[in-house]
Every structure is written in structure tokens, then in C-alpha cells.
Design a protein that fits this description.
Elements (H helix, E strand, L loop, with lengths): L11 E4 L5 E2 L5 E6 L5 H17 L17 E2 L12 H21 L4 E8 L7 E8 L23 H8 L2 E7 L2 E8 L23 H4 L11 H20 L5 H12 L6 E6 L20 E7 L5 H10 L13 E2 L4 H4 L3 E10 L2 E11 L6 H38 L10 E8 L9 E9 L2 E9 L3 H20 L4 H13 L1 H14 L13 E11 L2 E9 L5 E3 L5 E3 L3 E2 L13 E6 L3 E5 L1 H4 L2 E2 L2 E2 L5 H7 L6 H15 L8 E8 L1
Parallel strand pairs: 18-21
Antiparallel strand pairs: 1-7, 2-4, 3-5, 5-6, 6-8, 7-8, 9-10, 9-13, 11-12, 12-13, 14-26, 15-16, 16-17, 17-18, 18-22, 19-20, 19-23, 23-26, 24-25
Helix pairs in contact: 1-2, 2-3, 2-5, 5-9, 6-9, 9-10, 10-11, 10-12
């Protein structure tokens, strides 16, 4: 990113060029945004914050600015920052940034680098330069107008709107990157059009549906400029509303609320399943379920159900190959009367058709060209939001499947012992790094384990998928507690584990150059239970794990093991075990660090032996009630939900 490099490095297209460069850095805001539906909203937040800070800058900037900067920046560093940057300029910059970032996310799909900086301008006093860089340089944004309103290019109309708002703009190509930049100046208000008399004559009125798009009372400038600003404001607000929605049905519902009654009298949203969406026309699907009418909305709520029944009978049948432009749609006369116009827009993201949006309005006239183009732009954002929601749903499903495969389907029942488990993976980040097990080992023995893998997601799943089966195998082969830890430690350090880890890293995505397989650390509390007359003999060992606590029937609490080294860290380490007897009323509490390190400000749950104090208050409770009480106290310790996975196991002698 930065200003335009030399002619040998780049080719620039556009109206005008940025200022020459110098190491001095003007006031600027920059960020790298993930190429997702959240990027446009984050970009607008950055611009808002930047203008807020720039308005608070001192009247004169420091004479000497930093000499070293990673960017080549303009020589015109503002010597005077106005006390109040025009609100119109801030609004224009926000709209340009929103459009350019949205265009980069939709058509490049890579991370987006954003730079917004303030410059001096000899005539206007100040200017703002925006640069948006993506890493898919092979596809150039297009600026040629479509032949007809129904042939708007897939690239969108953003640059034509950017050109209307910017003093200069251009496209810069580097190896592996493409930057679109724009320079904006504050503009003085234009006078009303006059008819030669002393009074101003109003401009011809626009379509009533467009009046709701104006971000402010209609100015006196050209109709096209006013409409473009209103359309961009509408799209920016729509992007904010749709960004971050993780349910496709909610996206469909929000879309209908955005369109009705602003741009249409009614609308319907069909969603296609991802398998059928790859087929030919909707009438050619081989056994597919067909589109699902996810949302119907009408300005008159009393007509919604009647409209739904009519639309369900005649779903749209878009042409192939799929395109996002408007197509005529049969007017549902049985529900809405004989006269009206309706259009269908295919919702496409990443080349995949996701559904169809249909809008309609009563009366003999067709939709204005401005409305058809605006709805098409909105449709692209809706498709992007639906795609993001589906990606989240896929990831959540994969995480749930992995989680079920990594944990036991049921825990063993042990004679003379009651057990209770709590396992709460954090909602985000893939499969939990916490795991547990409780299983029979033969010869009158039962084994239990509770562990925590460094990391989460597929990498943690690799380690858990390796550790749990080996624990069961070694235990059933008759190895003692200490020997099991010794062998598991060597297993985590050998080449097979590194290869498995590398495979998991490849699944997650590209890594920095030079990154190789990394050993995954595992904290583990592992034990063996052997019931006898009058109690249960417990042999256990803790490898870098929070120590278990023993609660007696008199309310006393004591640690039940000694701390030892994490698994997967040191090769030449020998583990030892401790033995204790659980008598009637004794309870053993085993937890992960999601319990002990639960935070509230700077405090942790286990500060001042907080866990032991909480356990002492559980005297007289059975195993299930102890587990539930500790879980509740952990949740109540902080105002926000826990940020880490949480697991705990209670073993109580009957």
C-alpha cells in the first residue's frame, strides 16, 4: 500500500495521480482487515475514529515528524488542521471506503489493507487520500458503463460512484497486489438552479421510492450526485446491518426490512441448498429439494400470508449460467391484483448461486433504473452475508462433529463411586482443547483422565485424537499411572506427532515462511481407581495440570497430588504417582485451567485458594451438585462469559 511507486514497479490508471513522496508522515489511519463480511463495517469504524481524532489535533502539527516510515507518503504534510473538518467530507470518505472495501472483499476475497490519510491542498486547505489494497491483482475493476440497466457488470458500479465523489482516483498494480486509491476534497455548496429571475426553481422531483434514500435534505446539486450519495448511504447502512449476522434466515429477514417499503412494495427471498445450487436450472435438479422460500414481506402485513402462498406455487426459474442482474418475474396477480412489476435477482457469492431475491411494486410502471441497480448492489451484499453465515454454520458443524469424536460417548459407572462431569467448550475457535475420559481398564480397575491441549481447533483435535486412544490402550495393557505418562510423553515428542501436527496446520491454512511442525504441549491429570471393601484406592499423577482437591466429610480440603512437568516438553523426564484412599463422603475435584484461571479484571478464580474455598462450601453435597455449584461460581465470578474452555470432574466415594 502507500502512494504510487515508480513507473518500473506499477502501472496506474485513473483520473489524476497522487502527490510526490517523502518520508514525512501526515496524520493517517491504517488497518489490515480480514476478507470477510465484517470488513466494510470495520473500515467505516476506522474512518469515523480517524476524523474524530483529526478534529482534535492541535492547530499546528509538530515541525519534525518521524523520518522512518514503512510507507512512501506525500510531501504535503498538513501544516494547519482545521478545527472542524467538513461533515460532508467525512461522509464522502466513509462512502468511498465502504464501496472500495466491499468491492475488494467480493471480487478478491483476500485480506484488505486500508490507509486513510490527511494532506494539505494548496486551494482547499486539506484533502483526504484513501487507499484500499487487495492481493488478487489479476482482475481489474471496471469503470465502463453498462449498455443497459439490466447489464450491470458483476464488478459493480462502485468506481463510477467513487469517481463522482473523488477529485482524483486510480488503480495501482504491483506484483501480487492491487491498490485502488482516491483523493477527496471538501466542496462548497452549489447554488440552486435558477430560471433567470431572483428566485430559485426546484429541480424536477425524483421517484418517491428514492426520497427515503437521501442522507440529508436534498441539496441543490445535480440529481445524479444527490442520488449517488443517497444510494451509497443506504448501502453503507445495509452493510453495517448485515455484517456479522451468523444465521442465513435472519439475513433474509433483514433484507426484506431494508427493501420494504424503501425500494419495493413487497419482496421474497428464496434460499438454495449448497448442493442443489450447483445444478442447472431449478427445474432440472436431480432429486434436489429445490429452493426454500425463507422470507416474504409486504408493506401491508395483512397480505403476507396470501402472498406467500402465491409465491410458493411459482418459484423463480433463473437463467443459466447464473447472473446477478435483474430478470422479469411473473406478477402474482392472484394475491396482489392484476397490475404490477416484479424483478428477480440471483444471489451469488464466490461464483456460487445461493438464492434469489424478488421485489415487486403495484401499478403500471416499471422500476426506475436507479432502483434496479441499487437493489442489485444490495443483492451482492446480501449474498456475501448469506455466504458468511453458511461458512460459519459449516465450521460450527465440523467443530461439533470433531468434538463428539474426541470425547467419550458415555462414561463408565464405577462400583462404589459416583461421578459428575461438566464440559463447556468456548463457543468460538473450533473443537475444545479440554478433554476427559472415564473408562474400565480390566482386572477390577477403572481409569480417568482430564486434560488440556495447548491450542484449539484442528491442531488440538490432532493431539486429543492421539492421546485418548493411547491412554486407553496403555491402561488396558496393564501399564501403571506413571508408566502411562512416560510413554505418552515420548509419543508427543516423536516424529509421528510432528507429522500429524503439520497436517493439522495445513488444514488450518498457510503459515509464515519457515514455520515447521511444532510440538504440542499437553497438561494431563490421569488416575486409576480400584474399589475395595469400604472405599476406593486412587493412584494418580498430574503432568503440568491444576492439582486435584480432596474434600472430606468434615469440610477439610487438601491437594491430592504433586506438580510435575507438562507432557511433550522434556524427553528425559520420569513421572511418579501418588496414592490415596477415598472413604465414604470423600470427594475428589479435578478441573482444567478454564476454572482456576477464570478472570474478573486482574483477579483469577483461584487467587487466594479460591477454588479450595469454593469446594469447602460444597460439604454434604453429592457429586452432581458439587459439579454444578463449582460451574455456577465460575460463571458468576466475572461479568462476561468465560473466555476459555471449561471442564471439571467430580469423583465421590459412596
Amino acid at each position: 500500500m502507500g502512494a504510487i511507486p515508480t513507473q518500473r514497479e506499477t502501472v496506474s490508471l485513473g483520473a489524476g495521480a497522487p502527490s510526490p513522496t517523502t518520508p514525512h508522515a501526515p496524520p493517517a489511519a491504517r488497518a489490515t482487515l480480514a476478507g470477510s463480511a465484517h470488513a466494510p463495517g470495520a473500515a467505516r469504524d476506522l474512518v469515523r475514529a480517524a476524523f474524530s481524532e483529526w478534529r482534535d489535533l492541535p492547530e499546528h502539527l509538530p515541525e519534525h515528524l518521524p523520518e522512518h516510515s514503512p510507507q512512501h507518503l506525500p510531501e504535503h504534510v498538513p501544516e494547519h488542521v482545521p478545527e472542524h473538518l467538513p461533515e460532508r467530507l467525512a461522509e464522502d470518505v466513509m462512502l468511498v471506503v465502504s464501496e472500495l472495501v466491499t468491492n475488494a472483499v467480493v471480487h478478491a476475497g483476500t485480506d484488505v489493507e486500508l490507509l486513510c490519510r490527511l494532506e494539505d491542498d494548496p486551494e482547499q486547505g486539506h484533502a483526504v487520500v484513501v487507499e484500499v489494497c487487495d492481493h488478487h491483482p489479476s482482475r481489474a475493476p471496471r469503470d465502463n458503463p453498462p449498455e443497459t440497466p439490466y447489464e450491470t457488470p458483476e464488478y459493480g458500479r462502485g468506481l463510477r460512484l467513487v469517481a463522482a465523489l473523488a477529485d482524483a482516483w486510480g488503480v495501482t498494480y504491483r506484483r501480487g497486489a492491487k491498490t485502488v486509491w482516491a483523493r477527496l476534497l471538501p466542496l462548497a455548496p452549489e447554488p440552486y438552479e435558477t430560471d433567470g429571475t431572483h428566485g430559485a426553481s426546484p429541480v424536477a422531483p425524483l421517484d418517491p421510492l428514492l426520497e427515503a434514500l437521501a442522507p440529508e435534505p436534498r441539496p441543490s446539486c445535480r440529481d445524479g450526485d444527490w442520488l449517488n450519495r443517497g444510494a451509497l448511504s443506504f448501502l453503507a447502512e445495509a452493510s453495517d446491518l448485515l455484517a456479522g449476522q451468523l444465521d442465513e434466515d435472519l439475513v433474509a429477514a433483514l433484507t426484506s426490512q431494508l427493501l420494504v417499503p424503501r425500494l419495493a412494495e413487497w419482496c421474497g427471498v428464496w434460499l438454495e441448498d449448497e448442493v442443489s445450487g450447483h445444478g442447472g436450472g431449478w427445474g432440472e435438479w436431480a432429486g434436489g429439494p429445490g429452493p426454500r422460500l425463507a422470507r416474504v414481506w409486504h408493506g401491508d402485513e395483512g397480505r403476507i400470508e396470501e402472498l406467500r402462498r402465491a409465491l410458493e406455487k411459482e418459484p423463480p426459474r433463473p437463467a443459466e449460467p447464473p447472473r446477478s442482474g435483474p430478470e422479469p418475474f411473473t406478477w402474482p396477480g392472484a394475491a396482489l391484483g392484476p397490475r404490477g412489476a416484479a424483478l428477480a435477482y440471483r444471489l451469488i457469492a464466490g461464483g456460487r448461486p445461493l438464492g434469489t431475491l424478488v421485489i415487486g411494486r403495484a401499478g403500471p410502471g416499471a422500476f426506475p433504473d436507479e432502483v434496479t441497480g441499487l437493489v442489485e448492489d444490495l443483492g451482492r451484499r446480501v449474498a456475501l452475508a448469506i455466504g458468511a453465515a453458511r461458512q460459519y454454520a459449516r465450521q460450527a458443524t465440523i467443530s461439533a462433529v470433531l468434538q463428539r469424536g474426541l470425547l467419550p460417548g458415555a462414561v463408565a459407572e464405577i462400583p462404589g463411586v459416583r461421578s459428575a462431569l461438566v464440559h463447556e467448550p468456548r463457543e468460538q475457535g473450533g473443537p475444545s482443547g479440554d478433554f476427559y475420559d472415564l473408562f474400565p481398564a480390566g482386572d477390577g480397575r477403572w481409569c480417568f483422565a482430564i486434560g488440556d491441549v495447548q491450542g484449539k481447533g484442528p491442531e488440538a483435535a490432532v493431539v486429543i485424537g492421539l492421546a485418548r486412544p493411547w491412554l486407553r490402550l496403555l491402561a488396558r495393557e496393564g501399564y501403571g499411572v506413571a508408566d502411562v505418562l512416560d510413554r505418552l510423553n515420548h509419543l508427543l515428542l516423536d516424529d509421528a506427532t510432528e507429522a500429524a501436527d503439520a497436517a493439522a496446520r495445513a488444514f488450518v491454512g498457510p503459515t509464515d515462511p519457515g514455520d515447521g511442525p511444532q510440538t504440542r504441549f499437553l497438561s494431563l491429570l490421569y488416575g486409576e481407581l480400584a474399589p475395595f471393601e469400604g472405599g476406593v484406592r486412587c493412584t494418580l499423577a498430574s503432568a503440568g495440570h491444576p492439582l486435584p482437591l480432596l474434600l472430606g466429610p468434615d469440610g477439610s480440603v487438601a491437594t491430592a497430588a504433586r506438580p510435575q512437568t507438562l507432557l511433550g516438553v522434556i524427553e528425559d523426564v520420569t513421572y511418579t504417582s501418588d496414592v490415596l484412599e477415598l472413604r465414604h463422603g470423600d470427594s475428589l475435584l479435578c478441573v482444567t485451567d478454564g476454572v482456576t484461571e477464570r478472570r474478573s479484571g486482574v483477579r483469577q478464580f483461584d487467587d487466594g485458594d479460591g477454588l479450595a474455598v469454593a469446594l469447602a462450601g460444597c460439604v454434604g453435597l453429592d457429586a452432581e451438585l458439587i459439579a454444578e455449584r463449582i460451574r455456577r461460581l465460575v460463571h458468576e465470578f466475572g461479568e462476561r462469559p468465560p473466555e476459555d474452555d471449561l471442564a471439571l470432574l467430580v469423583l465421590q466415594a459412596e
